Request: fold
Amino acid sequence: MNRFVVPFVSGFLFAAGLAVAGMTDPSRIVAFLDVTGEWDPSLMLVMVGAVSVYALTRAFTRKLSRPLAADCFVGPKAKAVDGRLLLGAAIFGVGWGLAGYCPGPALAAAGASSGQAIAFSSAMVAAFALTRMMDGRAEQRRAPGTSEERR
Reply:
């Protein structure tokens, strides 16, 4: 039961926070990123609030021997900054700046039946699937016993 309740409540709170903060409105995001035009600094408060909540939560969780709702802590597997990470960050930033959406706010807005957000989220999911497929093919080429190794 806990496996489903905690993620659902966490996701609901995250989506509600994004909506209340105005992060699901792409025109507001673009206005925040447009520092040479009519810049809207109000989202800076959202970022300060989010970083503050993260810092307090991180300080609390570092003192725990195990998570409250899981068996163990799970962190990212990759530790190095590589080309793949930098390319992904660049695509994320360009997409956020052009469309005014990033994954979390796009899914929250799609849940509210925003046509633009549904289109963005569909393209995002397709890109995730394409990336996973390409990763699988690259992994197969690197695996021992493949046709490339036999040549």
Summary: The chain has a mean pLDDT of 87.
